[in-house]
Structure formats: C-alpha cells, structure tokens
Design goal:
This protein is about 55% helix and about 10% strand. The chain is α+β, with helices and mostly antiparallel strands. Among the domains are: about 200 residues, no CATH class; about 180 residues, Alpha-Beta Plaits (2-Layer Sandwich), CATH 3.30.70. The strands form 2 sheets. The chain has a 5-stranded antiparallel β-sheet. A hairpin with a 2-residue loop joins strand 2 and strand 3. Helix 20 crosses helix 22. It holds the Pfam family CitMHS. It is a multi-pass membrane protein.
Length: about 600
C-alpha cells in the first residue's frame, strides 16, 4: 500500500465515522473530505470538480424539477385519494393502493411521494379504525422497491448510471434494472401483505397521543383582573424564559395570538397555553393573578382557530436544524411557529422545549401560521406531514399537472425507444415545463435540493480518488481473497452485503458512490461483465429496510407512525434478506 492509498483510506474511515456519529450534515462531511483531497494534491481541480458535471447528477437535478411540477399541481395526490375511496379493508390496500404506488415510484421521486401520502394514509386509517403504524412503514418500503425498477426511480440508479458513463461503460438502459427490480417489488408486496403487516405494531399517532394526554403536554392559565402585569409585554411579565415551560399561544376571546412574541401584551381574561415540563407549572401558579384551569382538558379545536393551525413535521436527515436547540435556532421567529411537543423514538422528549437539541427523525407538533405548509412543503429543513388538500398552491391546476405527467411519460418512451439519452430527455422536459409556465423558474429552484447535489458531487470526487490512488483495486483484491474460492455467487453476495451495510449507517448515495469503484475493480479481476456488479450495487444501496436512518422515506414515516427503532429491524430484516437473495440469484443466473 502506497502513502497516498493509506492517506485516502484513513480519510474515508474518518469520513464514515463522522457520518455515523452525525458530526455534521452528510453533504458537509463529504465536501470537507473532497476539499482535503484537493488541497493535498491527490486530486486535481478538474478531478475534484468532475462530480459537478456528472451526467447522472445533472439528470437527477432536472428530474427533481420535472417531478416538482407534477407534485405542485397535486396529480399523484388526487389519484391516491381516488384509489383510497375504493379500499374498504386492510387486506385490500396492498393490491389496490400499494401496487399502484410502487408503479408511481418507478417514475417519480419517492421522497415527495411519501411526504404527500403520509397524511392521506393516516387520515384513512383514522376513519377505518386502523393504527397508522400498520401502513406507514409499508408505504416507505413499497416506494423504495418500486424505485429500483427504472433508471429514474431513485437517485441511486442515476448516480451509478452517471459513474458508469463517466468510465466509458455506457450506463444503464431505462428498464435495465427491471430484471431485478420487478421480482423484488412483486415479492416485497407479497411479503408485506402476508407476513410484514403481522409484524408491525399498533401504535397511536403522535398527534393522537398529545390530545389524549393533553394534561401532560399542555397547561392553561387564565389571567385575572388582579394580575400585576396587565397590559404589559410577555417579556416584562416574566413569562418568556420560564423554567421548563414555553408559552405557545394566547386565546383571547375568539382571537388566537400565536406565535407569542416577547412584545405581545397581556390582557385580563387571556387564556395562556403552556407546553414543556408541565410538572413545573406549580411555580407559575404561585404568581398572583394567574389561575390554573383544572378538571378539564384543553380542547384541541381551541388551538385550530383564527390564523393558526396544528402542523406535524419531521426533521429531515439533511436539516440545518440538527444538533442545535430550539432556542438557539430562534425557531419561533424563524418559522412563525411554536413547538408544542417533540417526539423521538416513540417517546416524548421530556424537558423544556427550548432546550431540546433536535436530531434527524424528530417529530415536531407545531402551532403555526396559516401559510406555514405552503412555505415549507419543499423545505430541506423538515418534511411537513400534515394533511394537504391537493392542489394547495394558489396557481395549481390539475390540467397543468396532467400535462407535466404526460411530458415525463413521453420522455420516458423516447428514452426507452433509444431516440434520446436520459440527459437530453430531461433537459427537453424541464424546458418544456418552464416555457409553458407549468412551473416557474423560482419554484423550480426550490425543488433542486442543492444539498443532495453537493453530496453526490463530493462523493463522486472521493470515488475518483479511490480509483486514482489504486485504493479501490487494493480493497477489491483483499475482498476477493475472502470469497473468490466460493465462486461468482459469493462475490456478488459480498458486494451486496457491503453496500447494504454502508446504506444502513450512512446515506444510500454515498454508499453507492464508494462501492462503485471497488465493484468495478472486482468485476475486472474476476473477468465478468461490470453491469451485473453495478446493478447489484444500485439495488443494495436502495434496499434500506433495517433502520429508519438509511433512507429518507423511512425517516419521514418514523415519527408520524410512532415507531421504535427496533420496529424497522423486526419488519425490515426478513425483507432485506429476501431482496438480497433474489438480487444475487437474478444477477448470477440471468445477467451472467
């Protein structure tokens, strides 16, 4: 091993440890590693920046724009609403709903799909008396499985495709992944319908738990006429920085004052709604002129009037909110929303709301302004999973939505027939939608997800360093020493297992990019078609079922379903083994 190889290997170990320990956001960890490789001279500027012009990454950016146009006009949401009307039982939901969703996710980015469908499914569950936890993990799983069928079904496929093109290997055809994707999707649906749903827990949703135990989450104090701070501000009354308590709203006759600012004036008769460590409310009760309302629970409808609404949001894996407290973030001022409660790993976080340090997957119950959902529905800060009645945008149009969907399907047909490359097709589709004003340029920018682009571009640069220094070849040789005597099947299985393990602890894109250079070296050494190994890596990088952090759709449903970390392992591990076996068998006997 040369010095350069050793340096890159140590850097990758540090990078992986930083990703696992969540030292910083994934794209910043990867970009830092790329910068180190550039500064030390291991990569030239051209090599370091190669990822920013990678065909797969540019195609993905354009696909985000096209999918954003469809999402904006609520077409998929409307279709699912219609499908749900025909479903009357849990047994019927697999074929009538999950099978179509798997098809949608083959052509549509699965993250916005799960964000849009989570509240829809949860409402349906409440109407039918079914625990949402029985359906939300399956929703995530079927979109992951469906995404493996086509080239555009998941970002992982496009990134691997771009790396293959960059190495002169041609890349995937549009339906090349289907040889594995279709069998695992069909078997996955059968598993969920027959076995998976029996392993899923029956949990109440986060919002239901808050309202059922409202006394534990909220307290109400009424301001009497003898309150010494009448007509003074919240700050002057000493109600701003309370020990363990957080003033989220003032109910003033029929008016709702929320979020409550430090300059808000207190009036006689105000109902002060507090959240946080309700056990400390006795200290506040000692203040003259404040009367604790006992014997009655706060009516949730009291918090839904006027200019406020209750919103449930999940902190995303790429959120700048992570590792900072709500107070440090100045959450109330930044988002015009007050935090009622925070749930993590099926449990409420028991401390003063302002002191809670947020983590990916945390579920926030917010009291927010009327335009909160519209402002943050495509935010990278969190996934908004409250009910949206599509279409929600003021200029949304079902006709334009169907036109956008038609443009996407036309481009898919042209790619399948070999008329256009994937990149050219997406460029034409994006320009068509912009010129016809189906989506405005400013709106399109919001759907681009710059952080994902930076992550992919940085990861590609790191992959280039692995190949350039010979580290990828060295690692491939060491891996082959373990399994080569057992034949090609063992080699495919090893590549799958390593990629899948990386996916469960870091990100799917990062694991794919790190494994492609090693996988291609393995294919060259054993003398097999590199496409089979590339398909294996793409499937394994997407097939994250065992943890909520391996894939963003798992994270989206984590809080809303009220799941524990172990629920994913219980349901996902058998599915993960099933997908691995099918992939290894198909790649070995059909692709080789």
């Amino acid at each position: 091993m040369t010095f350069e190889m050793g340096f890159v290997l140590i850097l990758i170990f540090v990078m992986l440890a930083s990703l696992i320990l969540e030292v910083a956001r994934p794209e910043m960890v990867m970009f830092t590693a790329l910068t180190v490789l550039l500064v030390t001279g291991i990569l030239t500027p051209g090599e370091a920046l190669r990822g920013f012009s990678n065909e797969g990454m540019v195609t993905l950016a354009l696909l985000f724009m096209v999918a954003g146009a469809i999402q904006k006009h609520g077409v998929i949401d409307s279709i699912v609403h219609k499908l749900l009307r025909k479903v009357n039982s849990f047994q019927g939901i697999t074929m009538r709903l999950f099978a179509p969703i798997a098809v949608f996710s083959s052509f549509f980015n699965n993250t916005p799909l799960v964000v849009a469908l989570t509240p829809v499914l949860r409402n349906w569950c409440e109407e039918k008396g079914i625990a949402p936890s029985k359906l939300l993990i399956p929703l995530s799983y079927v979109t992951i499985l469906g995404g493996t069928v086509t080239l555009i079904g998941t970002s992982t496929n496009l990134v691997v495709h771009g790396m293959l093109v960059e190495r002169g290997l041609g890349g995937f055809s549009f339906f090349q992944m289907a040889v594995v994707g279709v069998p695992i999707t069909v078997l996955g649906l059968v598993y969920i319908a027959v076995v998976g749903h029996r392993l899923l827990p029956s949990y109440k949703s986060f919002t239901e738990k808050v309202w059922e135990d409202s006394r534990e989450y909220m307290a109400e104090l009424t301001v009497r006429g003898d309150f010494p701070y009448l007509y003074q501000t919240v700050q002057e009354a000493g109600l701003r920085d309370l020990k363990g308590l957080y003033l989220i709203e003032i109910i003033r006759k029929k008016e709702m004052v929320s979020p409550v600012r430090s300059t808000t004036v207190i009036q006689a008769g105000d109902r002060l709604i507090f959240t946080g460590m309700i056990s400390t409310i006795a200290e506040l009760q000692r203040m003259k002129g404040l009367e604790l309302e006992t014997g009655t629970d706060i009516d949730p409808n009291d918090l839904k009037g006027g200019s406020t609404q209750l919103v449930e949001a999940v902190v995303s894996h790429e959120s700048p909110l992570c590792s900072r407290s709500i107070k440090q973030l100045q959450f109330r001022a930044k988002y015009d929303a007050g935090v009622v409660a925070v749930h993590r790993n099926h449990e409420r976080v028991e401390r003063k709301v302002g002191d809670i340090v947020l983590e990916p997957g945390d579920t926030l119950l917010l009291l927010a302004g009327p335009d909160f959902i519209e402002k943050h529905r495509v935010s990278s800060d969190f996934y908004v999973v409250s009910e949206l009645n599509p279409p929600t945008a003021f200029n949304a149009s079902p006709k334009r939505g169907w036109f956008a969907l038609g443009v996407l399907l036309t481009m898919v047909l042209l790619v399948t027939l070999g008329v256009l490359s994937m990149l050219k097709a997406m460029m034409i589709a994006a320009l068509t939608l912009l010129f016809t004003k189906v989506i405005e340029l400013e709106e399109a920018k919001k759907f681009l997800h710059f952080n994902i682009m930076l992550l992919i571009a940085s990861a590609i640069g790191i992959g280039t360093a692995m190949s350039k220094t010979g580290l990828a070849a060295w690692l491939a040789e060491r891996a082959l020493m373990l399994v080569e005597p057992f034949g090609v099947v063992a080699v495919i299985a090893l590549v799958y297992i390593l990629t899948n393990l990386f996916t469960e602890v870091i990100t799917n894109v990062a694991s794919a990019v790190l494994m492609v250079p090693i996988g291609l070296e393995v294919a060259e050494v054993i003398g097999v078609d590199p496409m089979g190994i590339a398909v294996t890596i793409a499937i394994a990088a997407s097939a994250s079922f065992v943890t909520p952090i391996g894939y963003q759709t798992n994270l989206i449903v984590y809080g809303p379903g009220g799941y524990k970390f172990t629920d994913y392992f219980k349901v996902g591990f058998p599915l993960s083994v099933l997908v691995m076996v099918v992939t290894v068998v198909v790649v070995n006997y059909i692709l080789y």
